Amino acid sequence: MAVPSFLARERIIARPGFNRWLIPPAALAVHLCIGQAYATSVYKAALVANFESNLKNIGYIFSLAIVMLGLSAALFGTWVDRNGPRAAMFVSAVFWSTGFLVGSLGIATDQLWLLYLGYGVIGGIGLGIGYISPVSTLIKWFPDRPGLATGMAIMGFGGGALIASPLSRQLMSWYDPNYVPSGVGANVASGDAVAKLFLTLGLVYLVFMLFGAFIIRVPAADWKPAGFDPASIKAKPMITTDSVSAANAIKTPQFWLLWVVLFCNVTAGIGILEQASGMIQDFFREGGSSTVAVTAAAGFVGLLSLFNMGGRFVWSSTSDYVGRKGIYMVYLGVGLVLYVLLATVGNSATWLFVVLAALIISFYGGGFATVPAYLRDLFGTYQVGAIHGRLLTAWAAAGVAGPLIVNGILDSRGKVGELEAADYRPALFIMVGVLAVGFVANLLIRPVASKFHEPKAAVDAFTSPSTTEASVTR
Amino acid sequence: MSTSVSNEPQRGTTHTPVGLIAFAWALVGAPLAYGLYQTVKTASQLF
């Protein structure tokens, strides 16, 4: 599928002297917007009231968006790699923004199906394409620090929720003067306010993401950072200088081992994230009442968001020094020990519970941010975006499995917010097992066999289809 | 900070204005700082 010339990859090849530090903000411009997907709880209750529905039906909108994220990233990954980041960011911006606008129409006209179609399906496609769009470009611009580069972008996805939550509350307060977000007399915003919120976010995100699309550049095929010696990569056994196509990658055991690693890491993280607020209150319940107040529980959720975002940047950057396999041994191995501690002694002191949970969530975020660099190490930069897209199906699967495991067990024990620490132990020990599986899968990862490597001519033809003919450098 | 090395002498070189880089970082940094501030404020209720 051809794209208009102003979006084409050959139009955005950077000239010598271009400063690569313009690329991370371009990537962040996209990820900060699509990260809004994790801030849907802000208006969930308002949507329930507006559609006279229930949390489950409204929750499907978010679930649908995450499933579409996985599907679109897997289906369009090769298209993204072939056409370059500008085309991908542009398409992502249009889909993400259209999703909000169609959703806004659905809320304003009381048609829930339009919200499913808009935010869930159309927006979800923008989410998937947007998530993978800057990743391979960043890896190519930062061959010396791929973990730092992808950490910066994917940190933006965590940061997007931090921005969207308070911003949405503020906007809904402006659009509905009767709306009280928290404290005494707290209520939900009107449907009209949420419709206007969607309209506003759709337009703001469109402008912001297009800014990213128009400043993004790809490096020339022979470009390398000053002082960077590619031979230093060759010296490391777990980092390849060869190329594996997306079609071949899914035939390798390495891809599926990494799929299991990501699935286990995400499933374990979701186990805590899903229940965070109720969990901290339940862990410190004495004689029916909790020693942790509702406001403190909200603070705990905020703290986890910070560690989720910070972990993406800190741990992914650290992986440039300790290696990708090494850092995943920490995420999964140390994570496993932390989970055991949480289950056994987590209720002995609030500070201990908070420290353990915060570290676990930082590993959850780190797992997301480090995986593109791990893929680059194993399969090369050739079609790393497409391979990343296919791997994100593990996220979609974990998004279903994690809550299913935790909710299934907790539901059999009672109601979250009325349980005790012991009620969480079975679920936490299952997560210990999940992490153990991921740890073993990571240990089994070895360099990809040479039979899967792509011939150099095919790689050159894919990555620079017209650079020898009519490339326009910027 | 600029780190380009290329072996294509036929192509002209470019210079990325520092102002553009600063503007781009400010554009993404400002909302992020707002979000961080609001979240830290919420998280502080824990202590």
UniProtKB/TrEMBL annotation, chain A:
Which key words are in the record?
Membrane, Transmembrane, Transmembrane helix
Principal location class: membrane
**Gene Ontology molecular-function annotations:** transmembrane transporter activity
Q: Which PROSITE patterns match?
A: MFS
Does Transmembrane show up as a keyword for this record?
yes
Annotated Gene Ontology cellular component terms: plasma membrane
Q: Which SUPFAM superfamilies match?
A: MFS general substrate transporter
Q: What topology does it adopt in the membrane?
A: Multi-pass membrane protein
InterPro entries for the chain: MFS, MFS_dom, MFS_trans_sf, Proton-linked_MCT
Spans through the membrane: 21-39, 59-80, 87-107, 113-135, 147-167, 197-216, 255-273, 293-315, 327-345, 351-375, 387-406, 426-445
User: Where does it live in the cell?
Assistant: Cell membrane
Which part of the chain is the Major facilitator superfamily (MFS) profile domain? 1-450
What name appears for this protein in its UniProt entry?
OFA family MFS transporter
User: What organism is listed for this UniProt entry?
Assistant: Modestobacter muralis
> What does the organism's lineage look like at the top?
Bacteria, Bacillati, Actinomycetota, Actinomycetes, Geodermatophilales
